[in-house]
Design a protein that fits this description.
74 residues; three-stranded antiparallel sheet; two-stranded antiparallel ribbon; 1 helix; 5 strands; 20% helix
Length: 74
């Protein structure tokens, strides 16, 4: 699951790269965080309903990129 989340965050950052030097806010209606875990060998699907992300990325200065990501685990 950690790998899937990391890949998802990188995909989000790459999608914001088209707008240089600009902070982007997540659009909740067009976003989803879903996962599958196994309990006793049986796949269990789930999703997080409340989350937020902000990405600041400038392709000319990738080392200065900033991502803030929060998930309500309740």
């Amino acid at each position: 699951m950690k790998t899937y989340l990391a890949v998802s965050l990188l995909a989000v950052a790459a999608s914001f790269a088209a707008t240089p030097a600009c902070a982007q806010q997540l659009v909740p209606t067009g976003s989803e965080i879903a996962f599958t875990s196994k309990q006793m060998g049986v796949p269990v699907d789930g999703k997080f309903r409340k989350f937020d992300a902000k990405v600041a990325f400038d392709p000319k200065k990738p080392e200065a990129a900033n991502i803030a990501f929060s998930v309500d685990l309740a």
